[in-house]
Amino acid sequence: MLLSTQSLYIGMEVLIAVASVIGNVMVVWAVKINKSLRDTTFCFIVSLALADIAVGALVIPLAITISIGLQTHFYSCLLVACTVLVLTQSSILALLAIAIDRYLRVKIPTRYKRVVTPRRAGLAVVLCWTVAFVVGLTPMLGWNNLRRLQQNGSVGADRVITCQFENVISMDYMVYFNFFGWVLPPLLLMLLIYVEIFYMIHKQLNSKKFSAGHADPNKYYDKELNLAKSLALVLFLFAVSWLPLHIINCITLFWPDCQKPMVLLYIAILLTHGNSAVNPIVYAFRIRKFRTAFQKIWQQYFCCMDAPALEIQPSDRKEMPLESHHEPPPPPPPPQAPQKEMPKCDPPQPQPQPQPQPQ
């Protein structure tokens, strides 16, 4: 029974890995070929997609290796576990950056592009990955189970152990530092941010100052509302995928005698890895720009069909239409003085010659 469960788990992991790599490569590819996707929000989405690609190409194969129970050096197994933590933390921080970006776009629409520049967005991405590495690699600096294993005689002088996540990662670190410090607070903060975003958008859409002649602001906030719903769905799926495993970690720490069924643990792990594969599906069904780019990639590169080039849509070239209400319009051209019609000069008529009088 255990062998069949493990075989099913490995098969599911392989399918998730393939779907995650292909789907998120499509996301990066779509941003590359569609100029209308190259703004700050989609810059953070690309960062999230890169983390998900790494999950499919690196983390899942390592997780399969861990599930087999290979005998490895303690620090080799610890590095594998820390890699999972780094990528998880980068995904959380990318989602937080996306939420803050959407909040600023709705809160200060007329000054958004002056505040959120491409350079600042790039620095935010670098900061997210730097924090992710610091948080994820903290067990490599000493907050791990090596001392405990040495005290109870589970590891010898060669430090070779059965490579499993709970053997090398301290549950104190996972619960108090990782979950309570760097997972739960960002999730709660993102929840509050999206609630505020929806409140501001609905307030603007219901505002009486938008009369029938002001359709552009309503279109802007309608578009922001649809995109916010899609990104909030991504956040919801992330929370649903990762919270079960963290709850199991809390049970392991606070109730160590409680037996955890292996099937339940496998399901929790599959949920965390499956989250990396569902984001491209959400983008395809919820964001029209991604759906159009995916169709172009499929037709042109997989079906060998000629697909029309993607162009920036007119709505993407314009800024927030409310800017025209805050900035003075350009002065009209000075009126030109009417040109006076020149009088027509008729050619001189020949004067009649006097006839000589007869003598």
Automatic annotation (TrEMBL):
This is Adenosine receptor A1. It is found in: Cell membrane. GO terms for cellular component: dendrite; plasma membrane; synapse. Belongs to the G-protein coupled receptor 1 family. One of its GO terms (molecular function) is G protein-coupled adenosine receptor activity. Residues 315-359 are annotated as: Disordered. The chain crosses the membrane at residues 6-30, 42-67, 73-100, 121-143, 179-201, 231-256, 262-285. PROSITE patterns: G_PROTEIN_RECEP_F1_1 (PS00237), G_PROTEIN_RECEP_F1_2 (PS50262). It holds the Pfam family 7tm_1.
